């Protein structure tokens, strides 16, 4: 059993680096078994470190690499002149100006962690965020050490004809021994986590793109041979991203070229390495036959996200990893705004906003309520890879969005302009960003800092009173925040609450002399009272419009009030929210009835509201689809004190079957009315029609009959795009029908397409008919491997996170499976393993008999003799909190 305690790193202990790096020259002789890395770095003593402990020590990081030689200012050092620790190389009492020359080796083909320099499908790739560069060479591998890099790559020309690195290509040629070389220079200072190289046999789509200032830049999307026909959308998304950043923020591409490289083995979605973005193939490759509408939307968002990092992350980066949301939360907000602007309509923006709210509720709110809860800017961590979370990313984006809500779009833009003017090519903090927003708008945002430092989801309680005599409506708002690990008590947040008031006829009431029908109230105290005069009759409040803050709203709406909002609210997010509240109340009631063994019943009022929405042709198909999706089983579980996955599943399935039976005609009509004949297009209108059509098909197959089963089979057979084909197959799988034939046909058709095979595994793993035994069978399939993150996620993660009724089987088989495969993944790839480990975060919320089995699984993993810090941090916090 492991007995050592991994080191905890605290934000309060930050010390500036003792030495700064001016320039880095790297030479690579690339070989899968033994790559030689020559590293010449010029350093100077950092005056800001004066007075700190060991201020004249040079500390370099190194992990799983072999030191061959080291020279300081031309003189070779012997082992007595430096200290080589487990993961550091230290030179004591160094002179103020230093040139270090270090030769080391690494073994990329043995690097299954996919961090640092590794081999995938016979080619070389890198991933250096957060701490992968230390797996390549010895270096002060921290984000506040920024330098200019020059890189020389040498490799066998036949095996690796393409040699890429950051910045601009300045020289290339052949060598005498069958190898060739390429020299790259990055003109901008960057931290080591943004370094990248690729040596591979690739092909590219390239275009010359004219920038706003008249310069021309070369854009390239590099992929393996056979995938060039799937790069058009990624290239178009890149061009749209460049143009949007110019027009919206006046931010330009600052290099002569910008490259995207797609690789199948990748821990993340993509990485913003300066000028050389390395992507998971999932977010690059797409054509109508292999990619769904969701895939196309993901490509646009991720391409935009990584490109936007060029300024929010690269040109201005993080002082330390506690500030991760400084770049990630801000850039998620930017990619969300980009995607919404690309749709270009108010309803389209609303649908993207609903998607964002759903993600928060399904993933981030549970994280806030679990053992891994942490502030947007954490105070401590054991393994930084564990903090690439929905709190840092999605909640971080909500924090940025609240700045815009409070300051207005123009005020937010002023703050962004000041931020770049102050901090270009600097490593800074979340406080620096907040200061730029405050100073640019002459606002006191001191209290707003609590969004960065306090964990948990605030709860806003609202109540309203109307005085007919004075025509005054009084709205009282109060806030509280539940305890989280290490933070039992919370101070009040600065919460923007966007409010509207609806009349009995459903119209918006003017709320001020300017006639505004939505106003933003600033809740800064534990309890505040707001008054609205000139309100002619008792209104129904529409609270937290556009989801103006990431909080839980408590207001005692009646069914009649929710139905009124569901039919009339001009704010589409709150209109959707009213429907979710109506559905949730009934789902919780049905779940309780299942637990009590009572007969199940669904009132006609709710079904009638669903019918009215389905038939309302004045609403976009995409919005109707969103509004008709029931709360997920995980969101329902969050509303229960003691989670019963089987009862939740039965209740939700009953509601789906009942809707299918009562609204059969309307659902069939929706399918007929939302066909998209002709050439496939991923545009928002077409995608919305397909989404509504396929949602209707899924509902119908919750109560299947011969006609609807045949309808699904015909759609599967005749589909001209992956969206419709996959939706039909999923509907068939979830119906419980015999799907062996279509599953095999699907696999046979697409077995050469790795991303489609991932879909094939995922759609089976997430089906409520798939139990642990079936997952184990699928793991024996020749196409399955744990070594590829996408494939592991498609099966293991889908089963644990998207199939709760089977994962939480009462016999504990799901937990045994989990413990077994957390250990197997950890031996290969700790980052992937730790994410899988988080499937058991909230084990204490389940029924006692489930808890016992879950604890046993957690203790089994915690007791392993060899366990990474990544997994140890997750399971130890789960057991402790």
From TrEMBL:
GO terms for biological process: proteolysis. The keyword Nucleotidyltransferase does not apply. Its cofactor is Zn(2+). Residues 233-451 form the Peptidase M1 membrane alanine aminopeptidase domain. Residues 559-880 form the Peptidase M1 alanyl aminopeptidase C-terminal domain. Residues 95-194 form the Aminopeptidase N-like N-terminal domain. SUPFAM superfamilies: Leukotriene A4 hydrolase N-terminal domain (SSF63737), Metalloproteases ('zincins'), catalytic domain (SSF55486). Residues 456-555 form the Peptidase M1 alanyl aminopeptidase Ig-like fold domain. The keyword Protease applies. Keywords: Aminopeptidase, Hydrolase, Metal-binding, Metalloprotease, Protease, Zinc. This is Aminopeptidase N.
